[in-house]
């Protein structure tokens, strides 16, 4: 049996090695390392795949969120609503821009933002909501957009974990997550569903005027060289990464199907076990399983984590300390905030290996060991 990886980017690379190697070599031969032709090709190809008018490549997913908030003209003290149960990047950029993070609860089944909790948190200072499509599952965007419209606030989608996911509206129509809000932001970190061989990110919008601002901010605030109209930053996707992503984009739906197949195997193995809750698949989302995350009841989670490691099976606990309890946010005095669902999840979740290269032998080994530990 091949060694089990949390994400097996090495085996995935070897399946498309000739295409990747040629793409990288072509960039090196061209010597157009910054803003070379593959960057424009990738932006165009990703826009077509996502069904969005504008894709602005940038340096990473955190930059994408920061640039989005800058483009919307948010000012120090403005409140931005976001779930506490998410990776720190989502809320880090809020504080970095001297905005005020407002942490809200998530749905205990989907792990995504609770729209009722989000609306209750709106005040006269609220300027935006940042729903996170966590673990590859879509947030309830139809409800979020209705709330935003009602209260005249912006929606920035954190789509770093859900590239390729479809949101299914009540009328049956579909849109890709990241293209429903005013702005979407994503990451191409190597472990993502669409992962580069280094850092990378992108910003999406259907708004022409916002697209102009986003491009300017990502490029030192300039639309014409040496003429800087706004304060910006330097955030760009380098040409080699774009060339790699151009190849991998063609395989993205295939990758999603492989992840779902692995998730189906896990679901079947753990079906109806009283101590294991498998990931919920919302009817409005075709989950792309960036992570496969269990909720454990009456199980020594840390003991299971250690047991699996001893059997050379990786597992991860995302996220043991929620945002509102992080030391970096102490001055907002939110540590005492009551978010019982978030606290409940942080004590019970564990994520299993999930990627495009898992085979049946590996999956059987993982599931049998988990059941051995839980049933003993």
Structural overview:
With 376 residues, this protein is α/β, with parallel strands linked by helices. It folds into 2 domains: 9-249, Aspartate Aminotransferase, domain 2; 252-375, Aspartate Aminotransferase, domain 1 (Alpha-Beta Complex), CATH 3.90.1150.10. The chain has helices spanning 9-15, 17-30, 37-50, 61-71, 89-96, 115-120, 141-151, 208-218, 239-249, 252-270, 301-310, 340-346, 360-375, and strands at 54-58, 79-83, 100-104, 126-129, 154-158, 166-168, 174-176, 183-187, 201-205, 222-224, 227-228, 276-277, 292-296, 349-352. Strands 1-9-8-5-4-2-3 form a 7-stranded mixed sheet, with helices on both faces. It has a 3-stranded antiparallel sheet with strand order 12-13-14, with no helix packed on it. The chain has a two-stranded antiparallel ribbon with strand order 6-7. A hairpin with a 5-residue loop joins strand 6 (166-168) and strand 7 (174-176). Helix 3 runs parallel beside helix 9 (239-249), helix 4 (61-71) packs across helix 8 (208-218) and helix 10 runs parallel beside helix 13. The radius of gyration is 21 Å and the shape is globular. It starts with 8 loop residues before the first helix and ends with a helix.
